[in-house]
Each structure stands twice: as structure tokens, then as C-alpha cells.
TrEMBL record:
Residues of the FAS1 domain: 91-223, 227-358, 362-485, 489-619
Entry's Gene Ontology molecular function annotations: cell adhesion molecule binding
Subcellular location(s) per record: Secreted, Extracellular space, Extracellular matrix
Gene assigned in the entry: TGFBI
SMART domains: FAS1 (SM00554)
PROSITE patterns the record matches: EMI, FAS1
Protein name: Transforming growth factor-beta-induced protein ig-h3
Pfam families, A to Z: Fasciclin
Cellular compartments per GO CC: extracellular matrix; extracellular space
Quaternary context: Binds to type I, II, and IV collagens.
Biological process annotations from GO: cell adhesion; extracellular matrix organization
Summary of the function given for this chain in its UniProt record: Plays a role in cell adhesion. May play a role in cell-collagen interactions.
Signal sequence segment: none
Superkingdom of the organism of origin: Eukaryota
Length: 673
């Protein structure tokens, strides 16, 4: 960044890759010089923000780029040849100070309204003085009505901007109010964590300009008197007629007229008209859904538009969050510029008019939740299966809906078998995933029992794991699942017998006396060798294995664990203890499940007492594996010299002739030196 001097004498830092070496020099000269304040200026506008670190490093305000400038802090000026702004200006009264801070229009109107004698006289006042641009931005008819009746309306308006004591920014506490000098009507103060301070939602541009008889704060708006609470604003605004009826039906009147600091995102009549009539009638006719809807439009704190310089998650009374942000001059909700009228200040908060209705999940049906999520393909399958009434009614249900990507290889045809399977994707209770526990049984509309498996980093129902956060609707909850689930149809032995790929394995299990084990209740994971796996073994080795019941039992038990592990729970590496006693290593590589580094042919064949993986090789326990050197045990000394030889190839300083001769001799006569 490089410094550039502006016409007004301020110095700005603009980004330049070629001038990064000057950065610290510039910072030391300007930031650490006496009485110099940093200002963020919106490029292409006249808007300034006396910045703090939180704003500084964002580099943008409402999506627009900024440039950092440095200017004299209030009450100081430059001296030729000196660093910073060392000279303190002599204090003047409030009237003269108005001209110094950029509020000459306020000064002019003080003359016209006969306020000048009061703000020139001894006393202790605070005035929130609108900038010249703020006065110029008033609608012509509003300004004319003020100026044409200078002795009354204009004087009252100016006195509403004043407090009868000295108030500095440190005294402007968030959520407090100050009595103005016009009929003691309140001024609403908000001091936000990002450093921005507002009075009746007008932002302080330059604060704490001391005067002999008080203090001047320059603000960016002309503020209007505030006498109505939020409920009264709803009652008198014609564009909020439907909202008014909804508030009355929900019983929220008392809340909106109570003391506090709220933000009402008030949906206009137009917003309600955009909702399908059937949906609107359903919500308006359901007191609980209606209350959730309205509470979703009420923020727990007052949020003025001027305080928002970037996206900010705000909690609603309904318990969810909305992202309140900005784009240029527009205020946004969840990234959409749907706010039609902003900063209508009330005695207990602020109202922003919105032209779209914000329907929370808590007021939606399962069908509506699904239509707005990445499960639209599943929702269409449920519709084709004739299950729509369960997704739109008032049954307490949980929908296990596979994500759209689960159907990347094709969408299944909805026949009778698929209809039955889809019924097993609807659980007969409204659940929350955070309350599910390992081993829990869930009953489906199809009459099946589904098991819950809780793993370190995931939560699964049968062979399908939950892929996203729950969406809890009015009566039903949507679980977004990674794939279609397959309810178990029999025990491990039943499933193996029913699959021709495992006929050799079934015979081996029977010979080893393990049939009863795999038929009893349990939580087995079986890595089941296919017929192909047995055919791949050398004939002699296979015959020897099949003829030795004890060894066969040991090898088969090495393929079985007593805990269920579905594929969705396999991370980089999972080690499982087999029934034989040795460990099995289950891992994933390029989305393929591997057991002891051998790829699995098929995963997640679910059984009532476990899960089966088809593997195309017979796994060997450690004790049964052939030695890597079949002729003789490795000689420890030879291994040491082998390692040294490997090192010598890296470091040529170790590659001595005697060492090579010694190694060759040892290879010829192991065990000697």
C-alpha cells in the first residue's frame, strides 16, 4: 500500500503490490503520530467510518471496497513540518462547533429557528447534529414543512436532537435511551460490538467534538420523533394489515408492546400474498405454526441497518438464526435483498418491512422441507409410491430421505417392492438425531425395525448414515441420508444361504460348527469370502484347510467380529478385533472399502444380527501366513547390515569397500562376521 495525499489534507493507504515495503513506514508515520485517527472510506461514495480493528481487516463494507485514510482527530489540527496533528484547537461554543464538523446546515437552521442563542449560551448540552448531506437527503416535502414553520416545527425537531447534559460515546450504552430536550421524548441508543454507535438508527459519523458548553456528535440522518412501540406501528401501517391480524390471532400483541429491544422483520401484505393460499391457510389455522412463523420474524435485539457492515447471524425468538447482511445500500436477509423499508424506529426496538414471508422449518410440512432440500428425487419417489399424505399430514413421523446424489447411477422404478422399501424409510415417530442412541430400534410404517448405530464421527440407521443436520418441521423431521437403506431380512446365516456366491463358505461354516453362532442374536460383522475367493486358493492348501476343523474354525473366526461396522462409518483406518483374536484393518481407498488392504466386492449386506461384506480373497490370520522368506528365519545381524547398506546409498561417505565385502560374505554364510 502506498500513501497518497487527498485534496482535504487526509492521507490514504491504497493497495499496491509494488509498494509493500512502505507499509510499516506508513503505519509508523501516521498511526503512531499524535492525534491521528483512521477512517475507512467507501470507494465511490462520501461515506466514512471511523474504524476499529474489527472493521479495518474486513477491507469491505457491505461488499464494497474501502480505503484507509488518516486525518486529524476531533479538536486537533496539523502544523507545517510536524508529524501528525499536534495542535489542539481552541474550544468554541456548540453553534460555532457545528460549522467546524461539517454540519453548517444545522447551524443555519439553528439561526432560523432561534435555537442559536441557547446553544451559544453557557450550559452543558449534547447535540446529535445531522450532516449537511443528511439534511439534503430529506424528501423535499418533509424539509419544506419543517422550514416553513420555523418557530415551531424546526425548533422542536432540533431540540429532539439534543440532550440537556454532556454525553460522550463512552456513555452511550447499548440498548439505553436518553431524554431529549423536546418533551423528554426518548432517543434510542445502540452501541454495537463492531464499534458503530447509532441514535434512533442514525450512525455517529464523527463523535465527541468538545465545545465550551457541551459536545457535538455528527450523525448521518435527520432523526424523527419516536413515540410508538412496535405493536402500535403494526396497527397504524396499512401495508401491514395481514400481519396485524396474524399477530392478534397468535397473541403476540403483549410482546410487541412490552419494554425491551426487538427487531421486527415485518412482512407486508404483499409478502403474504406470495405464499400459496393452501399453505397460508394451513399456517394461519394452526396456532403453534403461526406463533413459530411470527417469532421467526422477531430478532432478540434491536438491529439498525447502519450497524450492519457484513453478514451477521442473529437469533430469532423462535430459536433459529437469520443472517442479516447488506449489499451496497440494501439490507439483506439470508443473502436476499427483500427488505423494502428499513429503520422504522420504535420505543422498544426497530421495524424493517420485508416483502417476502420467512417461513421457518418449524412451520413446514415434511413435503415442504424435502422440496427445499437436496432430497427432491426422494420426495418424488415417495409421491409416486402414494405416500404424499404422510408427508403433508399431521402424523408425528421421521422421513429418512436419501440425498439426490444417491441416485447418480439411475432412479429406481416404483414397483410394489420399491413401495414397500419406501414405507420403511418413514419412522413412526418425530425424532431428533441428537437423542438417538446406539442399538436403538425404530419402527417403520412398513412394520420393520431399523437399528441405530452411533460411531465416533457419524450416526447411521442400518446401512445408511445421516449426511446433514436434521430439519424439524411442524409434525415431522427430515433426516437427509447418504443412500437408500436396506432393512435386514434374516440372520447372517440366512443371508449367506440365500446368496449363491457364498455356497462354499456356508459349507465351511457348517463343517467348523459355527452355524449356531451366526444364527443367534448378536452384532456381527462378517467379511465373507466368495466362492471365487476359495477357488483362488492353491488346491493343496484348500484341501488341507477344509480337512482340519480346528484350523478352519480359526480362519473363519478371523473373518468375524462381534461389533457391527457399516461402510459409512469407515474412515481412513478402523482396527477391529476378530473372534479369532487377531486384529483386522478396515480402511477406504478411493471410496472403496478394503479389509487388510484387499478390496471388498460388496458392502453392507444387512442381517438382523450383523452386517456382511463380500470379499474375493480368504483372509489369513497372522499365525497362518507364510513367512516372507520361506527358506530360513531372518538373521538379525544381516538385517542390521542391510539397513546400513540402504543408508550408504543415500550417504556416499558410508559406501566403503570393506563394508561391501563384509556384507557379501555374510550373505554367503549367514550368522558369521
Amino acid at each position: 500500500r502506498v500513501p497518497s495525499t487527498q485534496q482535504d489534507g487526509t492521507v490514504s493507504l491504497q493497495h499496491s503490490a509494488a509498494a509493500k515495503s512502505l507499509q510499516y513506514f506508513v503505519l509508523s508515520v501516521f498511526i503512531y503520530s499524535p492525534n491521528v485517527c483512521a477512517v475507512q472510506k467507501l470507494i465511490g461514495t462520501n461515506r466514512k467510518y471511523f474504524t476499529n480493528c474489527k472493521q479495518w481487516y474486513q477491507r469491505k463494507i457491505c461488499g464494497k471496497s474501502t480505503v484507509i485514510s488518516y486525518e486529524c482527530c476531533p479538536g486537533y489540527e496539523k502544523v507545517p513540518g510536524e508529524k501528525g496533528c499536534p495542535a489542539a484547537l481552541p474550544l468554541s461554543n456548540i453553534y460555532e462547533t457545528l460549522g467546524l464538523v461539517g454540519s453548517s446546515t444545522t447551524q443555519l437552521y439553528s439561526d432560523r429557528s432561534n435555537l442559536r442563542p441557547e446553544i451559544e449560551a453557557p450550559g452543558s448540552f449534547t447535540i446529535f447534529a445531522p450532516s449537511n448531506l443528511a439534511w439534503a437527503s430529506l424528501p423535499a416535502e418533509t424539509l419544506d414543512s419543517l422550514v416553513s414553520n420555523v418557530n415551531i416545527e424546526l425548533l422542536n425537531a432540533l431540540r429532539y436532537h439534543m440532550v440537556n447534559r454532556r454525553v460522550l460515546t463512552d456513555d452511550l450504552k447499548h440498548g439505553t435511551s436518553l431524554p431529549s430536550m423536546y418533551q423528554n421524548l426518548s432517543l434510542q441508543i445502540h452501541h454495537y460490538p463492531n464499534g458503530i454507535v447509532t441514535v434512533n438508527c442514525a450512525r455517529l459519523l464523527k463523535a465527541d467534538h468538545q465545545a465550551t458548553n457541551g459536545v457535538v456528535h455528527l450523525i448521518d440522518k435527520v432523526i424523527a420523533t419516536t413515540t410508538n412501540n412496535i405493536q402500535q406501528i403494526v396497527e397504524i401501517e396499512e401495508s401491514l394489515e395481514t400481519l396485524r391480524a396474524a399477530v392478534a390471532a397468535s397473541g403476540l400483541n403483549n410482546l410487541l408492546e412490552s419494554n425491551g429491544q426487538f427487531t421486527l422483520l415485518a412482512p407486508t401484505n404483499e409478502a403474504f400474498e406470495k405464499i400459496p393460499q393452501e399453505t397460508l391457510n394451513r399456517i394461519l389455522g394452526d396456532p403453534e405454526a403461526l406463533r413459530d412463523l411470527l417469532n421467526h420474524h422477531i430478532l432478540k435485539s434491536a438491529m439498525c441497518a447502519e450497524a450492519i457492515i457484513a453478514g451477521l447471524a442473529m437469533e430469532t425468538l423462535e430459536g433459529t438464526t437469520l443472517e442479516v447482511g447488506c449489499s451496497g445500500e440494501e439490507l439483506t436477509l439470508n443473502g436476499r435483498p427483500i427488505i423494502a423499508n428499513k429503520d422504522v424506529v420504535a420505543t422498544n426496538g426497530v421495524v424493517h418491512f420485508v416483502n417476502e414471508l420467512l417461513i421457518p422449518d418449524a412451520a413446514k410440512t415434511l413435503f415442504e422441507l424435502g422440496q427445499e432440500s437436496e432430497v427432491t428425487t426422494s420426495i418424488d419417489l415417495f409421491r409416486q409410491a402414494g405416500l404424499s399424505s404422510h408427508l403433508t399430514g399431521n402424523e408425528r413421523l421421521t422421513l429418512l430421505a436419501p440425498v439426490n446424489t444417491a441416485f447418480k447411477d439411475g432412479i429406481p422404478r416404483v414397483d410394489n417392492n420399491m413401495k414397500n422399501l419406501l414405507r420403511d424409510h418413514i419412522v413412526k415417530d418425530q425424532l431428533s438425531s441428537k437423542y438417538l442412541y446406539h442399538g436403538q430400534k425404530l419402527e417403520t410404517l412398513g412394520g420393520k425395525e431399523l437399528r441405530v448405530f452411533v460411531y465416533r464421527n457419524t450416526l447411521c440407521i442400518e446401512n445408511s448414515c445421516i449426511a446433514a443436520h436434521d430439519k424439524r418441521g411442524r409434525f415431522g423431521t427430515l433426516f437427509i441420508m447418504e443412500k437408500m437403506l436396506t432393512p435386514p431380512m434374516g440372520t447372517v446365516m440366512d443371508m449367506l444361504k440365500a446368496d449363491n456366491r457364498f455356497s462354499t463358505l456356508v459349507a465351511a461354516i457348517q463343517s467348523a460348527g459355527l452355524t449356531e453362532t451366526l444364527n443367534r442374536p448378536g452384532t456381527f460383522t462378517v467379511f465373507a469370502p466368495t466362492n471365487e475367493a476359495f477357488r483362488a486358493m492353491p488346491r493343496g492348501e484348500l484341501n488341507k484347510l477344509m480337512g482340519n476343523a480346528k484350523e478352519l474354525s480359526s480362519v473363519l473366526k478371523y473373518h468375524i467380529t462381534d461389533e457391527i461396522l457399516v461402510s459409512g462409518a469407515v474412515g481412513a483406518l478402523v482396527r477391529m478385533k476378530s473372534m479369532q483374536g487377531d486384529k483386522l484393518e478396515v480402511s477406504t481407498k478411493k471410496d472403496v472399502i478394503q479389509i487388510n488392504k484387499e478390496p471388498v466386492a460388496e458392502s453392507d449386506i444387512m442381517a438382523t444380527n450383523g452386517v456382511i461384506y463380500a470379499v474375493n480373497s480368504v483372509l489369513q490370520p497372522q499365525a497362518s501366513r507364510p513367512q516372507e522368506r520361506g527358506d530360513e528365519p531372518a538373521d538379525p545381524a544381516l538385517e542390521i547390515f542391510k539397513q546400513a547398506s540402504a543408508l550408504s546409498k543415500v550417504n556416499k561417505n558410508l559406501a566403503c569397500p570393506w563394508f561391501s565385502r563384509l556384507l557379501a560374505k555374510m550373505k554367503g554364510n549367514p550368522g558369521t562376521i
